[in-house]
Here is the input.
Amino acid sequence: MIQKTHNQKAWFLVLPVIVLVAFNAVIPLMTVVNYSVQETFGDNVFFWEGVKWFEQVLHSSRFHDALLRQLAFTGIILVIEIPLGVLIALQMPRKGPWVSVCLVLMALPLLIPWNVVGAMWNIFALPDIGLLGKTLNSLGIAYNFTRDPTAAWFTVVLMDVWHWTSLVVLLAYAGLSSIPDAYYQAAKIDGASRWAVFRYIQLPKMKRVLTIAVLLRFMDSFMIYTEPFVLTGGGPGNATTFLSIDLVKTALGQFDLGPAAAMSLIYFLIILLLSWLFYTVTMRNEGD
Here is the structure.
């Protein structure tokens, strides 16, 4: 019987990556854990507090409100962007010179930095001089995202849809492009309708890429900070103060490092748990 020999030298190639990840992720995480169980008044003098900050955060109505706003925003984003991205991908050409044009146009919003997106939409939505704001007000629609919470939510959601639907489109298009023509030819011979082709051929073949799209959009929308902060600053009032904005206000605005560290760990665990649930549910029947 021939025994296989395993060459472990490949580990030396990934060792620099492991060290880099440990330096950039694990060490800062341990620092956050350290702050979450202690209190400090400066000069590197710490006092043990145990789970006091975690209890304070979990019993805080401010945290609960920010979490509800975050969940609502993420839910709205997923409900809009995933179907819209798939719909646009289905309409894009598979062959010919227009393929490159469509792909480039879809990729353009993803190339714009997050702070620039927020600044662009801030100017675009201003009720007096912005194209969106002035147009809506001229049509008789009272629109002012700086004062009206509903308008602020509408603007933030619209901005995110414009910025990130392209990611779903590109992933869905990649899944559609990988489907062999033989499937479509067989469906045409059987006289399958367009809906049947989508349900039994295209959608199952896009399952993996759509799972990636859902996970990426969930995690990114749940951690969104720069765009809404530049656009609304979390206002009006606290209408668009999501968890990330509230966390930064606690850490930097109030300099409450203990509660901020505890909140960031809870925040991290929520994202980890919900991402695991999403993945488990979507991939549940993958082995069937």
The chain has two domains: 24-59+256-288, 71-242.
